[in-house]
Amino acid sequence: MSQTLNGQRVPFDSNDPNSKGRVALIVLFSSVVGALLLMAPAVASQLQLQLGLNPSQTGDLFSAELGAMSFASIPAMWWMRKFNIRTMSTIFGTVFIVGNISSAYIGEFGTLLAIRFCTSLAGGSLMVLCMSLAAQTKDRNRVYGLWVMGQLSFGAIGLAVLPHFFDTFGIGIVYWVLAILMIVALPLVRFLPQRNIAADHISDEQTGPTPKYVLRAALGLVAVLAFYISLSGIWTFVGGIAGASLIGTETSSVILSIATVLGIAGSALATVLGDRPNTRTNLLVGYLAMTLSVALLAGMPGLLRFAAAALLFKFTWTFILPYIMSTLSGLDRSGRLVNLANIAIGGGFALGPFMGGRLVESAGGYGTLITVSVTGLLLSLILILAAQPRRAAVPTPTAPVPQMAG
């Protein structure tokens, strides 16, 4: 394998974690496997219309998808250390392709549920691999920004374009597009090292984890969990808050669509800034702005206040996430900690709506949910700042090293 340099073809190093090919793999793989969940509103509606699924079945289907992607983190901690990751990525990519093509022709709920679980398990394995590879990069903030931005962009394009083809091709168009995108992206596995990930970091792990590391890692994981519980609880019921404030459904839908675009802008800003001025400052500003956005939803927000809250919320959510992931990867360059973060993300996504619905029902309104979310975000801020590694704890790579986002 080779690449062109100054008009001459020279071999490229598949072990270079900062190569453009490696970064492209991280962004494209994670964007393709995460696209379906980001297109969930349109996909869910079409599934109910085309297959006659009831709301419970639809919820179970997406819970299985999300649960499989989160569960993939557990076996990943084993296979990424034991097996050739180029081979394993090819296998998982192939399973993802076959699973999506099969899903396009299945009309029975139980069978579709099983196929989607297996497909998402393969996709989740690729997502975890991408998160681990991103943890090894020299400019982690920037690459995690690309990781988030890619997923949001694919999801936004899918939401805008694919529903126009539902009348002609049905829900199968979504699954076929995902399969084709993975077929296009799969050749990028040549930019992966043939050995397992652990082999890349033997020299960095001569000693076992210290108590201080374990404490920082635990604080970071709890910070991620609190962050996602807070944001998913609010985001799930933001439409309800608009309705309670007498803001029309069409109006709130337009605002939330614009917010999705701002979400892409937030991750883009994190990508451009990188670690300037520094990660702690960016985290502090981002968290406080996000907390303000949630607080703006309190009471009966008028149209302008609701719009400001929704737009600021989505912008800061995606701005903060790359810095959170960078903090965790700074604690563990091997990527094992961000594998566990994937479980915390899935758990937070599941717990947020679960807790939020009960808070709304018990309080007879959204005030308690908003208060709990504000508290959760402030708690997450304190924990992630406490988890920040000292500069000396994250050695600057002497050779190029590698490195997303609902």
From TrEMBL:
Intracellular or extracellular location(s): Cell membrane
Key words, A-Z: Cell membrane, Membrane, Transmembrane, Transmembrane helix
Short name of one Pfam family: MFS_1
Topology term for the membrane: Multi-pass membrane protein
Gene Ontology cellular component list: plasma membrane
Superkingdom per UniProt: Bacteria
Transmembrane segments: 21-41, 61-80, 87-107, 113-134, 146-166, 172-192, 213-242, 254-274, 281-300, 306-325, 337-354, 366-387
PANTHER family according to UniProt: PURINE EFFLUX PUMP PBUE (PTHR43124)
Protein name: Permeases of the major facilitator superfamily
